[in-house]
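Contributing new records

If you add data, match the layout below exactly. Sequence lines come first and carry their own label; structure lines follow with theirs. Keep one chain per record. Anything else will be rejected by the validation script.
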Amino acid sequence: MLKVSATRSKDKALTIGSFALEKKAVNVIILDMQKVSSFCSYFVVSGANSSKQTRAIADHIEEALSKDRVRPHHIEGRE
């Protein structure tokens, strides 16, 4: 299993948070999960004012990450 350095993981989480803010996400929080989880280092949470905005944020993050060939493990906001 490939281990990603904490610094790289943190940078990725901060980048994802920035992508969310580009689409006017609200209450963006980056949680450091390293001491409580064995499957993720950081968890990015954000809110939106409507379901349409939620989908736009999720789509923007996925599209921006795909340019660097990065696939997020999971994105909420698709339903």
